[in-house]
Amino acid sequence: CMPELAQALEGVPVIGPVIRVADLRTYGFRWGDTALSGELPVLEETGSPAVGGTAGNGAEAVNEAADDYIAQVQETFLWYAAREYQGYVASDTGYQVLRDDGEILSLCFYTTLNAGGSVDYSRYFTLDKATGELLALSDLFTEGSDYVGTVSADILRQMEEQVAAGEGDYFLPGGIWSEEECFQAIDPDQQFYLDENGDLVIVFGEYEVAPGSMGMPRFVIDEEAISDIWAR
């Protein structure tokens, strides 16, 4: 690795007793006004898991997901670049640490693609530091519970309240949207993360549940709504 990068990595903070950032993966190329660039973390497990825990493969899973994500970003970028959208296409990828404490590491990979207009993409990852495991949404709830229905009902409530207050616009029944376009329920593996307050945050992609003007909507799920089935 480059000497400058090696020096920089000496100052990379340890993320936890099990999982830490071991490297930064950068990539990119440019010709004229067209450019692709990105930076994503490389995680590794170090030390021992908490008492009673077992070493998981969360770091490896995130690293593999980063490879897949980069490949998808490059494929999308090249698709637009091949069509010469106004002679200019740019894609920028990065990451954000959403929570980092003794229990949880939540990461977001994000990409902004400019090709005559701006489009955003993202993927979220939540790791249990005690076990080293990458958490799925179903892991947060008691086995066999209807977490999809419960979480969806709370999101629908929030959507309706925002629309009534003039603070949001979503694909809801009774408007101009067809029944197929209207929000019905989250996916069982819907994107999510656990924030610094320990709250569950559900994330949707652009145009998934709302017009593009709403970006990528996020909903903090009411603790009381899920308290009976919450397993964390």
| Secondary structure: helix percent | 10-25%
Series of H and E elements: HEEHEEEEHEEEH
Count of individual beta strands: 9
Number of helices: 4
Instruction: Give start-end ranges of low-pLDDT stretches.
Output: 1-12, 50-54
Spatial arrangement of strands, main beta sheet = 1-2-3-4-5-6
Radius of gyration, whole Å: 20 Å
For the termini, the CA-CA separation is: 40 Å
Form type: flat
**Tell me about the biggest sheet?**
6 strands, mixed
Give the amount of beta strand, in percent.
Answer: 25-35%
| Structural class by sheet pairing and helices | alpha+beta
Integer average pLDDT: 85
Topology of helices and strands:
Blueprint: H1 3-9, E1 19-31, E2 34-45, H2 58-82, E3 90-100, E4 104-114, E5 118-128, E6 133-134, H3 147-164, E7 192-194, E8 200-203, E9 218-220, H4 223-226
Parallel strand pairs: 2-3
Antiparallel strand pairs: 1-2, 3-4, 4-5, 5-6, 7-8, 8-9
